[in-house]
Amino acid sequence: MNDVTSLRGQLLVAAPSLLDPNFQRTVVLIAEHGDDGAMGVVLNRPGELEVADAAPVLGDLVEPGAVVHAGGPVQPTGVVIVGQFNDPEQAAVQVFDDVGFVSGEPDFDELGGELRRARVFAGLAGWSPGQLEGEIEREDWILEPAIDDDVFTEDPAGLWSAVLERKGGSFALLARMPLDPSLN
């Protein structure tokens, strides 16, 4: 990474002005970011399908009743698992602290003992080189460091507002802004 300061471990919180339906009011965890572009997962789009039904082999990694989350529009049929590891070095990609991505070829028998908790995503979000930097410059995204409770929130629908509240100041006002400001 010569010119790009990595945003790995940061949240991208969609600005109210970002109306792209793929990202409107999303919170994205950045997992990789460099001169070749960026990738991450949308944290606040839970699906309807339970993990145990969609991929029975993954059922033991998550809490009973956990659903597959829509991680983004890129490779929507690809499965991505984000976990909180007992030993962060076991992560294929360590994103921040003890949170990282599970290997694409995991040993499921061993994996259960390595994770404190996990979340399953279908798809991911991706940006070509310079694209994310341009979107940030246009103020499409608000940056905030991620914490583990963001990734594993029990209230994904409330995550956008919760992160903005935590950021404070004028962002706390945005957190209370209705989807359609004309309704205010």
What this model shows, in words?
By secondary structure, the chain is an alpha+beta fold. The chain contains 6 helices and 10 strands. Strands 1, 2, 3, 4, 5, 6, 7, 8, 9 and 10 form a 10-stranded mixed β-sheet that branches.
CA distance, first residue to last residue? 44 Å
Tell me the number of strands.
10
Strand proportion, as a percent range, falls in 35-45%
Coarse shape: globular
Structural class: alpha+beta
Sheet with the most strands?
A: 10 strands, mixed
Q: Radius of gyration in whole Å, from Cα?
A: 16 Å
**Fraction of residues in H or I helices:** 10-25%
Order of helices and strands: EEEEHEEEEHEHEHHH
Mean pLDDT: 91
Count of helical stretches: 6
* Weakly predicted, low-confidence segments: none
Short description:
The protein has helices at about 50-55, 110-115, 130-135, 150, 160-165, 170-175, and strands at about 10-15, 25-35, 35-40, 45-50, 65-70, 75-85, 95, 100, 115-125, 140-145. With about 180 residues, it is α+β, with helices and mostly antiparallel strands.
Characteristics:
alpha+beta, 35% strand, 184 residues, 20% helix, 6 helices
Write the layout of secondary structure elements.
Blueprint (H helix, E strand, L loop, with lengths): L9 E5 L12 E8 L2 E6 L3 E5 H4 L12 E4 L3 E12 L7 E4 L2 E3 L6 H7 E13 L3 H7 L3 E5 L2 H4 L7 H9 L2 H6 L9
Parallel strand pairs: 5-9
Antiparallel strand pairs: 1-2, 1-10, 2-3, 3-9, 4-5, 6-8, 6-9, 7-8
